[in-house]
Amino acid sequence: MNILIIGSGGREHAIAWAAARSEGVATVFVAPGNGGTALMGGKVCNVPIHATALDELLVFAHDNHIDLTVVGSEQPLELGIVDLFRNAGRQVIGPTMAAARLESSKAFSKEFMARHGIPTAGYKVFRDIHAAGSYIELPQTVYPQVIKASGLCAGKGVFIALDKKEALKAVKELFEDRIFGNAADEVVIEDFLFGQEASVFALTDGKDYRLFLPAQDHKRIGNGDTGKNTGGMGAYAPAPIVTLDVMQKVEERIIRPTLAGMAEDGYPYTGFLYVGLMIDNGEPYVVEYNARLGDPETQVVLPLLKSDFIRALQASVDGTLGEVPFEMHRKSATTVVIASGGYPDHYETGKTIAMDNEVFEMEDCMVFHAGTSYDSGKLTTAGGRVFSVTALSENLRDSIDRAYYAVEKIGFDGAYYRTDIGAKAL
Ligand code: AMP
Ligand code: GLY
């Protein structure tokens, strides 16, 4: 089989890693990929086509006899890559443009959850600043309130307003200053949820689904969950906060009604479904859906999958998902993100990367690249999140220690990482 993976982050490096280990896979192309996928060698190679150049990707898939395309990132899904590929008779993993609105439109996803009785924070959708302002001023509006641009903002379009003043400032920035452009044509204002966050991922053919191990991301830049929101600074799995009882509730109250509701509404959901949860006293609520796997959660969740990844993906396309093995290693995994100094604000790129060969010899340790570039034999930084260093072990404590041991073997000017990934689960 020839596989095409679309995207360029740590998640896509991990997907390429899992694909290359799958049985019967001849070639893995990554478009556009990164320094890590460039260095994998063997059956893996990069293709210099941007993830949103859909027509070029389709031509490439035809010309190179691609059997299965795996969409890693959200932008091509929002642009309709799945519809385009399917209409051209090509097999692809992901939801259609209409189904991907579970992620690309928070207004759509909130209305969907309300319609189908899926537990989530109470909310209102606004299309102009005056209506939003009136709601913010209502005496019955209880703070904190969470104010969100409805469209895609790479995880950055969310404000937690502690009072009216902060709420008014946020809606001004969204509607008037247009800091997120058209992504804030609609704005969702919702009640604040208390509890602990976790991420659950399902692979689905629209009816059947299989679950990966639950993970926990670390979204803030600083230790102790302080500072700005980022794309994610590290993750671990399995997350003990998602007990068997919580997982059962997630399946009964969220995953099954979501798949049934999407089918009923005429947008059958296929591919990866990411459910971002808030768990309060053992009760799960949906914070957000994403139409893809998480980054950096994929970097812990995929190494813990024992069964053949591509075989499972192919089964989801064939409608035989219930018939293939989908087993997990009985281990824990931790991934630590190494970022460029200054991220998530301004940062510099082009820094030379030094790596001790010892990391390549460590068993059950994977250095997934995110923002790196490999050119003329030189590896340099090329993004905000640069690496996602994963280690597996029999227990969480040891997987954390091993991941940090490996992190210390990688260096570049300005490298920054949190030192408390996984600590809250210990
Ligand atoms: P989202 O892009 O909707 O996932 O929001 C980004 C982050 O903001 C989440 O991961 C949470 O940490 C926080 N957040 C979003 N919505 C809420 C909410 N209703 N209550 C508490 N925190 C929230
Ligand atoms: N780790 C958060 C996300 O992938 O959206």
Outline the secondary-structure elements.
Blueprint: E1 2-7, H1 10-20, E2 27-32, H2 35-40, E3 44-46, H3 54-63, E4 68-71, H4 74-78, H5 81-87, E5 92-93, H6 101-104, H7 106-116, E6 123-126, H8 129-137, E7 145-149, E8 158-161, H9 164-175, E9 187-191, E10 196-204, E11 209-211, E12 216-217, E13 220-222, E14 226-229, E15 234-237, H10 244-264, E16 271-280, E17 283-290, H11 298-301, H12 309-318, E18 332-339, E19 354-355, H13 358-361, E20 365-369, E21 372-375, E22 378-381, E23 385-393, H14 396-407, E24 410-411
Parallel strand pairs: 1-2, 1-4, 2-3, 4-5
Antiparallel strand pairs: 6-9, 7-8, 7-9, 10-11, 10-16, 12-15, 13-14, 15-18, 16-17, 18-23, 19-24, 20-23, 21-22
Q: Runs with pLDDT <50, length 5+?
A: none
The coarse overall form would be globular
Number of domains: 4
| CATH homologous superfamily title of the largest domain | ATP-grasp fold, B domain
CATH fold-level assignment of the largest domain = D-amino Acid Aminotransferase, Chain A, domain 1
Question: Structural class of the helix and strand makeup?
Answer: alpha+beta
Approximately how much beta-strand content do the residues carry?
Answer: 25-35%
Bound ligand species: adenosine monophosphate, glycine
Number of E-state strands: 24
For the record, the CATH architecture of the largest domain stands as 2-Layer Sandwich
- CATH class (first level) name of the largest domain: Alpha Beta
| Helix percentage range | 25-40%
The N- and C-terminal alpha carbons lie at a distance of 41 Å
